[in-house]
Design a protein that fits this description.
The protein contains 1 helix and 3 strands. It has 83 residues and is α+β, with helices and mostly antiparallel strands. It has a domain of 54 residues. It has a 3-stranded mixed β-sheet, with helices on one face. The protein is extended and about 45 Å long. 4% of the residues are buried. The model has no long low-confidence stretch (mean pLDDT 88).
Length: 83
């Protein structure tokens, strides 16, 4: 188990030559290619994406973040559940 403050986004299929985009926050101890490659292989396998598919992956250490957004559209609708 990697940890509670880790996350990974996978976007597939993407237009263009690169078909899989992977982005994730991992603890610093995992930010080595020898540790990330098995994570990528596992993600592709669990998602049913062929192992020989083209991909780009970016992983980083989560230290501090800010998220800003507007989830209400012009008609006053949202797809978020907030309390």
């Amino acid at each position: 188990m990697i940890g509670m403050r880790s996350w990974v986004d996978v976007h597939f299929p993407c237009e263009g030559h690169i078909k899989v985009l992977i982005r994730g926050a991992l603890p610093e101890a995992y930010l080595e290619s020898s540790k990330i490659q098995p994570i990528i292989t596992g993600l592709l396998g669990r998602l049913g994406i062929r192992q020989d598919e083209t991909y780009e992956a970016t992983f980083f250490k989560p230290t501090r973040a800010i998220q800003i957004g507007s989830s209400v559209n012009r008609e006053g609708m949202t797809d978020r559940l907030e309390s």
